[in-house]
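To close the section, here is one more complete example, presented without commentary so you can practise reading it yourself. The ligand is zinc ion.
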Amino acid sequence: MSTPVLINTLEFVEQSLEIHDKIRASDLPRVQEVLFSGRGDVEYRLVGSRGSRGKFYLQLDLRGTLGLMCQRCLNGLDYPFEIVRRFELVKDESDIPDSDLDDDDVDYLVIEPRLNVTDLVEEEVLLALPMSLRHEDGCSSGDGAPKERKPNPFQVLEGLKTGNKS
Ligand SMILES: [Zn+2]
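Output:
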């Protein structure tokens, strides 16, 4: 385990600081859990900035490649990703607007004297991982992964109907 990176978020944006680093997937236990190969790393860059009207922003850029599993052939699949997340800092939870009314571009973070950047990176990587991942150019495994495993659209509709029953 590497030492967690802690920042004082308010200080960080007030001074327009910036940090970047590379974290091995093996140092992100919850990401590690979903990995097929255990391989992969995440590069991140965190930038603090002041917006107009006294607003404070943190921007988190993430990129890397993770060894995930193809849901069709159950073999390894390298998943490259690039994510940009923007957070507005707020004093406390009550300052967070109703998420339904807000646009999806900005998220909110409560000001913290000791924000664990490693945790934040881990969280955002997990959120960005696809629910169902497949080899885009078709699976190449020789074990005859059946193509018919593709869900029957009628069954899917059926599932939706029953799922919505109240
Ligand atoms: Zn596959």
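Once you have examined the tokens, check your reading against these statements. The chain has one domain: 6-164. DSSP finds four helices and seven strands in the chain.
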